Write the C-alpha cells for this entry.
Amino acid sequence: MNLEAFFKMSYGIYMIGTKHGDQISGYIANTAFQVTAEPPKIAISCHKENASAGIIDESGVFSLSVLEQETDAGLIGLFGYQSGNEKEKFERVNYTFGETGAPIIISHAVAYFECKVEDKFDVGSHFLFIGTVVDAVLLNPAGQPLTYSYFREEMKLLAPERAPTYVDKNKLSEKRQKELSANITSDQIEEQQQAPTSEQSAEGSIKEPGPRMVCTICAYVYDPEVGDEAQGIPPGTPFEDLPDDWECPVCAAAKSAFISEN
Ligand code: FE
C-alpha cells in the first residue's frame, strides 16, 4: 500500500465547535463533507479521545467554520495540536454562539454552518456524526477556503496524530521522509545547495544565524532570520539563543523536539 496515494485526496480545513452545559470545546477537522442536499446534511469525523466527541454526543449540536487560506498556523496549532483548557483556547479567538448554542469561530472563517446531529456511526478510532444544517452563513464571499493540500504543501504542516488523515512519517518512502524532515521539496534542496551561503556572499563579518530548525511533531520551521514575533523573538535570533521555555508556536512542543533542517 502506498500511503502517499492518500495525499492525493482533497479536503478543506475546518474548525468544529460544540458546547454542552458549561463545557465548551473545539477542534480542527479536515474530514467534513456535505452528504445530502435536501435537507442539507454534513458529516464530520471526530477522534473518540477528542474531548469534543463526548460533548457533541451529549449536546447533539456542532458548528463548522470554513477557514480561509490566510489562516495563521498559530490558530490551527491551538485547536489542532494543543491539548489543554478549552475555555482558554476560545479566549484567544473571535467567536460567537449560534442558535444551537454551539460556539462558532469567526476568526479567519469565510463561512460557517450550524448542525443538529441526526446520526452517529462508530467507525473504529473515530465517530462519524451526521448533522442536519440549521443555519448557513457566508462571512466572506471573496475569501478563498483553505484546502488540505495547501495546508500540507504550502504551509508545510503535518496532520496531527488524531486526524483521520494522519500518516506516520516513518511509513513513507525514504525520499518523502527526507523532504518532510527538511520541510522543503527536492527542488528547493537543489536550489539551496547551489546558492551561496551568507558567509560566502557577505563582504563583512555577519554573525551566522544558524540553521533553520524543524519541529518533529508538526513540521513547523523556526527560521532564525524571521524569529518568532508572537513570542517576542526578534529576527536574527539563532535557535540556540531561544529561551529554554520557548515552545513551538504551532504545536507547543519543547525546543528539544526540533532538529536541524540540514
Ligand atoms: Fe510543532
Remarks:
- The pocket of fe (iii) ion is lined by residues 215, 217-218, 220, 248, 250-251, 253 (CB under 6 Å).
- Confidence is low (pLDDT under 50) at residues 184-205.
